[in-house]
Amino acid sequence: MTLAATTLAAGAAPLALDVQLKIGQPFVVGLLQGSVYGLIGLGLVLLYKSNRIFNFAQAEFGTVAGISAYLGLNGKLFHIPWHMPYAVACIIGVAIGTLTAVLTERLVVRPLFDRPKVILVVGTVGVLLLLIALESLVFPEGKSLPAFNNPKQGVFRSLTDPAARLGFAHYNLQWEQILTLVTLVVLALATVAFFRYSRNGTAILAVSQEPVAAQTVGISVSRISLITWTLAGFLGSVAGILVLAGSAVVSPGVVTGTTLVGGITAAVLGGVTSLPGAFVGGLLVGLLQAYAGTFLTQFPGSESVAVGVVLLLVLLVRPQGLLGREA
Amino acid sequence: MSLLEVEELRTGYGALPVLQGISFSVEEGQTAVMFGLNGAGKTTTVNALAGLLPIWSGDVRLDGKSLKGLDAPKIVAAGIGLSPEGRRVFPALSVLTNLRLGAWTRKSAGRKQADDTIARVFEYFPRLEERKDQLAGTMSGGEQQMLAIGRAIMSRPRILMIDEASLGLSPKLAQTVFQVVSQINDDGTTVVIVEQNVGVLPYADQALIMEKGTITYDGSGADLEKSGDLRKTYLGDASDLH
Known about the structure:
The structure holds 2 protein chains of 2 kinds. Chain A is mainly alpha-helical. Chain A has a domain at 33-160 and 168-252. Helix content of chain A is 69%, strand content 2%. In chain B, α3 runs parallel beside α6 (141-153). Chain B has one domain (4-241): Rossmann fold (3-Layer(aba) Sandwich), CATH 3.40.50. Chain B has helices at 42-49, 72-78, 95-102, 110-124, 126-130, 141-153, 171-186, 221-227, 229-235, and strands at residues 4-13, 16-26, 31-36, 57-62, 65-66, 80-83, 159-163, 190-194, 206-211, 214-220. By secondary structure, chain B is of the alpha/beta class. Chain B has a 6-stranded mixed sheet, with helices on both faces. The interface between A and B is medium-sized, with 18 and 30 residues.
């Protein structure tokens, strides 16, 4: 063996490890973050299909769910001194987040339904600001929601080792990440199936396309709107819990701050009306962010810049998105 | 007792009144045609009967039962179907899905009955069967009109209302649509048509003329054809020229 060949062989292993860390790790992180964006995007598309508006409060339903889960876990929810098990606290949190969406529909959207759409959009911004203000009242200090595999409070208590991991391309996947990914993909598929195969899913499409005609065939536009907001609230709440579990801090407005732009970009990438498009768009945004953060380390904040650039490019060059059709 | 009774009906848009207290009735099994210029209140009338507009005062009764206060879905379930002005098909859904949505209020009747009604619609409009998988928005105006009428039939209404059946159609296609509507009427459905095309008059058992939110003529189609009142409505009174 020549000296050159020996040197190359010796350097091959670190090189492979480096490539896998720079390619494999961001891939996993990007998929996880992207599927959260996808879920937020799905909620946005759902409401766009139904009401033809962008709901700026979509991600905030997730913050409400996360804060409610934290309060339930620590025996502070509605001053009930019961330290709920983590799974129960999460379910209660999702229920409260979903209820917030339902109240938004009944108290804000429905009364404004016949007004110009821009008024409705401003209404959702108002809901967002109100929710953040209310969260600051009941939850002023930043706290953290434990990871699902937290040995003391987590859902997976049997996995006492928080580092329980599965190997994947030199990157160790945690159980929590697998749970997140599986939950998000299952929810996305269920949402798409709901639209494709259920009666109410078809009715939502009908209402979005011709609300007057929908009434003439006997569809209650009010009921359909409520179903849509319930679904969107549920998706946003689940996304919020998954984002916040194990994250550094839960604070007012946190899910909006961390996922709304990604969710909007996901929806736009998908063409705003396509549910599969929104989810795929979310994955692309997540991957883009992860690789930008890996390869553009000399430019701090490059992840956010990359998402903003993509959002504008899609709007300018391909406004119908990648999969811009009703589905 | 008439199948449809409208008594002193007043309604409008926002605070703007359109109907000034109109009254008329339609007998079961008949075809009533409502004529009038734009803005006369024809569409407002059928929209109020379909529950798309609130009844300010007066009453609407179907087979003696008041429909006042019912919303559109309940009125469809009660037996009034509307093919709305401008067709308003669901453009990004297939012809078949449009038709299935027409049977929305008949969920309890089951899929078999819906399939039977779809078969009936395809007998009336064979073109729809040829295009059943096509997106409704990609069809011609005439085909969309057929679909809108077919979708309204899907709820198996006792009264089928068609708003501007011939608008934008060629005279030949309009006659085809009128003939099919006549056939639907012969098969037992009472029909109310809003029209500006006098070509529908031969199919009318009853004719109504609307002007400025009131009914100025209510009689048989044959009498209207002889009387010249319809000519006066559309062309004006000859004395107006002097």
